[in-house]
Amino acid sequence: MLSKRIIPCLDVRDGKLTKGIKFKGNVDIGDPVEMAKFYYDQGADELVFYDITASSDHRNIMLEVVEKVAGTIFIPFSVGGGIRNLEDMRAVLLAGAEKISVNSAAVKTPEIISQGANAFGNQCVVLGMDVLKVPVSATIPSGYEVVIHGGRKPMGLDALAWAKRGQELGAGEICLNSIDADGTKEGYELELTSLISRAVEIPVIASGGAGRPEHLAEVLTKGSADAALIASMTHYGEYTVKQIKDHLHGAGIAIRRFW
Amino acid sequence: MLAIVDYKAGNLTSVERAVRHLGASCRITDDPGEVDRAERIIFPGVGAAAASMENLHRLGLDKALGRAVHQGKPVLGICVGCQIIFEHSEEGQTPCLGLIPGKVKRFDSSLLTKEQKPIKVPHMGWNQVTWRKSHPVFKGLQNQDQFYFVHSYYPVPQDPEHVLGTTEYGLTFASAVAKGSLAAVQFHAEKSGRAGLVILSNFLSWDGKEV
């Protein structure tokens, strides 16, 4: 049976983790390659690197990070952030990532999804969506609106319609981030995740709000998500990937438990 | 020398990195002469069957692969390299290499999971392989081990003898196959963590014999 995936997400700026990640015993790790190895050994099923490097001069630093990660861990990982065109995608894939995640660029130029899918295959293209709950209106019939630039800019785009459009354009997966739930540690946005996941045939990764293993169990069952993104709950040593997986297994959820 | 066959299908550097990590040297090549001279061959691939077959023909790699298998040289197919070794693929109705009797079919999206939900296509993520027979390339693996899959088509070998491992996804399909000195896996061994590296490592020391 296909397992649900647990995916730690690492934010990288200019080749370094944006916050030094602290584990129990206060070990501070700032190197994304070491962190990737750490999560690989812990049994993460996949990793996401989010490159928040502002200047394009530092892009090749990120590519060096991707290359080092690809030579160190042997599970799939994706890279998102600042990918604007086919050349950016090609560079990241050649450096060793399996997938590229497009978010703002896809909202501005939806064709980037189909171009990427045609050039590299659907499985390479993840549509990242940042979503905010809003009053139901004629423009936003689902009550969920797509926003870009870290949630500051509403786009007048209905999340449900955009998810379906993304699938049509050739995205192989959707990474669905709830801005409302993000950082709360009170659980994923179940209603949104379930709405999108049931409407598309491609896998949906739930993101935003994870604080306890129970939250992952909920979103992978009631939320119908295929995978769950985690960050702070494991970055600061509160939980290990193994503890989360043991909980999910105990809840009867199919999970990869041996690595 | 180990040759990784380059027929312009997808990212071959992942396979190269995994092989190097295991301490072996290898070379990505699209030259049939180099494939002829190699001691062993990995035949990877991500992409469409028709385009893959066209590139193999154009580069003369189809014949080189046939010669290698005929001579009993160890060959490992991965993903699309586990599909176009059969006779025919439903993907673009493509005649393929015919190195193992059988065909390649598409997952029907009306198939249901164990929870009676429609399956998503592609089959993407970690799944188990039930090992049906022992084989030098798959030694040391357990039924609980999981592997990373990304595919919309699956192999259907004609002869059950060639099925080494099976996986459940709406139906039971052959996820590991072998015939003579040719072994192939539908999943990405190079991205399947320790269990995947076990397969690559076994392959690196395999003499091409089935026992």
TrEMBL record, chain A:
It is found in: Cytoplasm. Its EC number is 4.3.2.10. Transmembrane segments: none annotated. It comes from the Bacteria. One of its GO terms (cellular component) is cytoplasm. Pathway: Amino-acid biosynthesis; L-histidine biosynthesis; L-histidine from 5-phospho-alpha-D-ribose 1-diphosphate: step 5/9. InterPro entries: Aldolase_TIM (IPR013785), His_biosynth (IPR006062), HisF (IPR004651), IGPS_HisA/HisF (IPR050064), RibuloseP-bd_barrel (IPR011060). GO terms for biological process: L-histidine biosynthetic process. The active site is at residues 11, 130. It catalyses: 5-[(5-phospho-1-deoxy-D-ribulos-1-ylimino)methylamino]-1-(5-phospho-beta-D-ribosyl)imidazole-4-carboxamide + L-glutamine = D-erythro-1-(imidazol-4-yl)glycerol 3-phosphate + 5-amino-1-(5-phospho-beta-D-ribosyl)imidazole-4-carboxamide + L-glutamate + H(+). GO terms for molecular function: imidazoleglycerol-phosphate synthase activity; lyase activity. The keyword Amino-acid biosynthesis applies. Keywords: Amino-acid biosynthesis, Cytoplasm, Histidine biosynthesis, Lyase. NCBIfam families: hisF (TIGR00735). PANTHER family: IMIDAZOLE GLYCEROL PHOSPHATE SYNTHASE HISHF (PTHR21235:SF2), IMIDAZOLE GLYCEROL PHOSPHATE SYNTHASE SUBUNIT HISF/H IGP SYNTHASE SUBUNIT HISF/H (PTHR21235). HAMAP family: HisF. IGPS catalyzes the conversion of PRFAR and glutamine to IGP, AICAR and glutamate. The HisF subunit catalyzes the cyclization activity that produces IGP and AICAR from PRFAR using the ammonia provided by the HisH subunit. Heterodimer of HisH and HisF. Belongs to the HisA/HisF family. This is Imidazole glycerol phosphate synthase subunit HisF. It comes from Dethiosulfatarculus sandiegensis.
TrEMBL record, chain B:
GO terms for cellular component: cytoplasm. Pfam families: GATase. Transmembrane segments: none annotated. Keywords: Amino-acid biosynthesis, Cytoplasm, Glutamine amidotransferase, Glycosyltransferase, Histidine biosynthesis, Hydrolase, Lyase, Transferase. Its main location: cytoplasm. It is found in: Cytoplasm. Heterodimer of HisH and HisF. This is Imidazole glycerol phosphate synthase subunit HisH.
